[in-house]
Amino acid sequence: GGAIQDINCYGQNLYFNEFAMNSEITTVRIQHYDLNTKRTSCIMKENKDSFPSDLAFYKDLIFCSYTTLAYTSGEVIQVDNYVCNLDGSKRKKSFPTDNYQNLYSDGKYIYLNDVKWSPFSKPKEKQSLTVVDTEGNTIASYPTGDYSTFSSDIICGSKEHLFLDNQTDTTYQIYYANKNEFTSEKINFHLMFEIPLNKMTHGYSSNTN
Q: What's the pTM value of the predicted model, to 2 decimals?
């Protein structure tokens, strides 16, 4: 079977993951569609047990990564990060990250958020959200181990604010942080919104493990 996943648009460029698998092979390819020329090209594709994953857009560049998996356990054993032009050209190695981190960008800052849900994730007391520059140097950070394993994530937001959504056993929450405070080397999240789960739309998941 196969599927089109993770559609992203940046300027005149459309990107999507093309996933397919059978009993013998799995393919993951990132396709680039130019909205002006109407042409499609493959800018990243699988290489044995290594698969393209995160895409983050930063000042007309793409930060991307290849994830290598252990065949039997599914554990991530290596992540190689790259930066390239919007059409996939001139790709080169970028800064290293931990094996279980998601990479985001708002065009000004780059964020590394530790994955919580995997059995191979860091211990909770070591999990964090980190803001870095294009060389991987830390600008600011915030511990995230106390937030939900499956129901918390960051939203890059606007030029002014970064957001974190979270779900406890009883409430849904949204926190915000002022990006102009990143220079303090800390991310200062403040509660913006909180609602009891029993007052939300019927059928909303309450899985907070």
A: 0.87
